[in-house]
Amino acid sequence: MNGDEHRRDLKVVLEGQYKLAYELLEDAVSTGLTPIVIGPPGVGKSLLVRKFAIDTDRPFYEVFFDELLRPAYLIGSFDPAIVLQKGYCQEAFESGHLLQAMEEGGIFLAQELNRAGEFCQNSLLEPLEERSYYVPKIGRLRADEKFAFIATANPAELAGTHQFSEALRDRLRVWIPLIYPDRETELKIIRVNCEPATIAEDLLDKIYDIVKAAREEQDLEMAVSIRAGISIARLAAYHLSQHGELDGKDLINYARSVLLGTSKGRGWISLEKTIDDVIRGALKTHV
Ligand SMILES: Nc1ncnc2c1ncn2[C@@H]1O[C@H](COP(=O)(O)OP(=O)(O)OP(=O)(O)O)[C@@H](O)[C@H]1O
Ligand SMILES: [Mg+2]
User: Fold this and answer.
1) What is the pTM of this model?
2) Which CATH number is 85's domain given?
3) pLDDT (tens digit per residue) in 139-167
4) At 242, is the pLDDT very low, low, confident or very high (cuts 50, 70, 90)?
5) Residue-wise over 78-111: b if at least 16 C-beta within 10 A, else e?
6) Which residue numbers delimit the ATPase dynein-related AAA domain (predicted)?
């Protein structure tokens, strides 16, 4: 995916851990060291690196890695029609997103890098170490000095991810952790993601307390991310705009619907019950 599609105003809360992480990204890129932002789902990794890339005002390319992604998508391939006419020449080679970023001195965002299969991981070793890539029949393409590679990843123990090979891990030089933010920051994040609607403080507090309680509940196996709070808040704000009021039952219904999607319990019935208990427990402190 080409980054131009993302060149719109991003609403990013850049304080606390996000400010520190942003500064570390700047330091790493300025010193030519490859950074990787790691953390659980929905903690703001993708948004932060996208914001950084946009702020540099360089071309940027964003690729979401998974097992099916092939090196040709990153490196490029020869167009058979042109090869037939003119043979293997520069003109017949279409650079992939990584090589484009290298040639243009752009930023390459490798989202979810630890979902990459072995072939893809291997194809990154040369660009990261040598800042160049040898294309058979054409020669070595060297990266512009402004080229930078930035990765994000979920911690490896989460399902659906691979371990990094030793060689790739060694080339990722600056590890930047993000965790769930503190209360104040998370509330700000929820607020900016609901704009232009404004949400009353006491309602926001309730939503945060529900999310926090769900996050801490041992019987819910999946992490409850910042997305959950944003979703509940958006539903509540919409309801308010339509009906002028929101009672406890509405809030519980919205929260249940959102948390059912983000959580994993032992069986559906017991999941619903656990979630209801969590929500009611969290709201008790508000009466
Ligand atoms: N600092 C922030 N400022 C504003 N919004 C944020 C911030 N952090 C997270 N969000 C919001 O939280 C949601 C999740 O963010 P993002 O997609 O960046 O998370 P992620 O860590 O990349 O998740 P995943 O591991 O699932 O890819 C988005 O809706 C985003 O707008
Ligand atoms: Mg992401």
Assistant:
1) 0.93
2) 3.40.50.300
3) 999 999 999 999 999 986 666 677 889 99
4) very high
5) beeeeeeeeeeeeebbebbbbbbbbbbebbbbbb
6) 36-172
**Domain range enclosing 127:** 3-177
In a 3-state reduction of DSSP, which class is residue 116?
coil
Same domain, 155 and 224: no
User: Does the Cβ of 226 fall within 6 Å of ligand 1?
Assistant: yes
Give, for ligand 1, the residue of 189, 190, 211 to mutate: max count of ligand atoms closer than 8 Å to Cβ: 189
| Substitution site in 46, 47, 54 for ligand 1 pocket (most atoms within 8 Å of beta carbon) | 47
Task: CATH number of the domain at 226, please.
Answer: 1.10.8
- Helix-then-strand count for the chain, H and E: 12, 9
Pocket lining: 117 vs ligand 1, CB cutoff 6 Å: no
150 lines ligand 1 (CB under 6 A): no
**Domains in the chain, number:** 2
